[in-house]
Sequence to fold (682 residues):
Amino acid sequence: MGNEIEPGLGLASVEVVKIPVATDLDNSNIELCVNIVVGSNPGPTLALVSGLHGSEWLATISNLELLQRVDTDNLSGTLLVVPVANPIAFASGTRNIRDESDSPDLNRSFGGQQAWLADQLATAIVDNVLKRADAIIDFHCGPWGAAMNGVASPNDYTDPDLNARALAMAKAFHLPHVRLTPMATLFPGPRSMIGYAGESLGIPSIVASIGGAGFDQELERSWVETSISGVFGVMDHLGMTETHNDQDNDVVIVGNPHRVNPSVGGMIEPIFPPEGLMNTPISEGDLLGRVWSPYTFEVVEELRAPVSGVVGMVSNAHPARPGDWAYLVFETEVR
Amino acid sequence: MPAEEAFSIGNNTFSRGTQNLVSLPVTVGMSGAPIELTVHVTVGLEPGPVLTIMNTIHGGEWYAIEPLRRLARTIADSPMRGTVIILPVVNPGAFAYGTRNVPDQVDSPDMNRIFPGPLTSTGDQIIAIISNQILPLSTYLIDFHMGPLGSAFTDTLVGSDFASDVSQRSLEVALAFGSPIIRYAPMLGGFPGPRSSKGYAGGTMGLPGFGGEIGGAGFGSRLDKVWHSRTHDGLLGVMGALEMIDDAPKTRPPRQLVYKNAHRVNPRAGGILRSRFGGDQLGIEVAEDTLLGEVVSPYTGAVLEELRAPVDGLVYYVSRDYPIYPGGWAFGMADFDPSSSHWVDNE
Fold:
């Protein structure tokens, strides 16, 4: 990276480094912007990466606010914060970069060898951020109209110790549920950042999916605070901070999500309230929402829970294309 | 036409006391699917005005669909004089993508700048149907343009440079709609111009009406309820003023500002808008130089730009925190200087 900073020399600081990635067709210089927060004391390096998908920007806001709250005098180690990992998709407000790539999703491009912008961005993230980290949190959230409130940990890294360390991080986020799923091999897979970081780099990683956009402002604010509090919980766990944000809570382990997304385009009419996200149990068959045609005004589809559990993604009233994000249901088991 | 067939659009005829759904064929799109214009036609038991309500001529401005759906239900079984024509999605191609305009390569992309639709683009063909088959049947036109995701408006646009009786009747129905803020300004010689829906309807066809903007998308269900109710009730207020229904709800606030000069306070820099005036502050009074919001870098958090009120006035559009382009919708000020505005007292 351009400015090498040695942590632990009493040189607490916050630096912004812009790493050149590529020149796009509009003559813009694509850069990866990394905020480096060096604590007063030595310690591990935690990478916080949000915005791999351009439409998931509430997490960007959460991490920008986190940056304002970190006290370098009471930080041991280093934070590498990338608020917007995919500036091109962020600029277009879309999940993926709008090019003709045959691998458009940045979070499926890690380890890629092509020259597409997603591949080049992934390479820049790996070389300048991931390889310097001891632990990684990958932030996602709902785009306009959908919201989540959970943390996920892989259970399929080849190294069982890595799985255990990731799970410990996920529990330190202090949410009532942790999703334990084969993230490295199945979804999102080996070419996701979390899959690649664990399997190829041996770095424990978790996914925090907190919040979404288009909801009551108080609710969105609560998600931002949840995200920030969760990060401080992980930093406490790693020995980077001592906020004592370590309230004990029983963590319910949940399994693979069941998507309940519309199969037809239309307007989502939410029935399940967003305040029930991840805390209100539901039964198989419960009505989560409806889809109605903005042309005929008639209901064209009902969205019902396929299993009993908790709702891991909620929706507000918004237009949705077939397959667009509406609801997720997790089956629950207590451990 | 037999007495029981009270209304027709194209080859479609409708009887008194019925609610009808019609799909007017437009063309075939690149996917092979037919492109159609969906129209709801509610014909009252007795003759009367024909109120046409359009929505989503810009794909991101869909927000009024819900109150229009409610209006259709409200008037379905109610005694009514005249006819209500609702076009909930004028621009399905842009709506599907959530974009303002259809993402094709035509040189007339904005459907609200191409009336009467003389060319053969998808947009032109849709506008031609509206111009040739629907507007000639209408006696009043309301065209909704609610805020796209992240911005919310409380404003009603009325053209002051139509024929004097058209402008006057337009203002009267806008007041009946109940918007607290009404822009009465040159539309043919100003915004949005003679080839907009309202500009063409009012200037070329002598059709009174207004552009309506109550609320916007992305502010959550609490404000959705408020804004959707205002739009629904406002439309009933218009119908009451036109004597299409009896017992219309009281829609007019204690006073309404009729103003001429609007000031956009939109950023020059792209970034994340940190708003200090959100949905609950829509329509409030602010002093010149009040800090309305800031644009911060999504990469570093640094403040890139401050957005300040250029005049004393009412904030007629606001925004929430969201990513914003250069020129994106942030804040709008209605100048209430007495030299160019006046208040209408309703009490």
In short: Confidence is low (pLDDT under 50) at residues 1-10 of chain A. Chain A touches chain B at residues 16, 18, 33, 35, 51, 57, 60-61, 64, 67-68, 83-84, 87, 90-91, 93, 144, 213-217, 219-220, 265, 267, 270, 274, 292, 294-297, 316-319, 321 (CB under 8 Å).
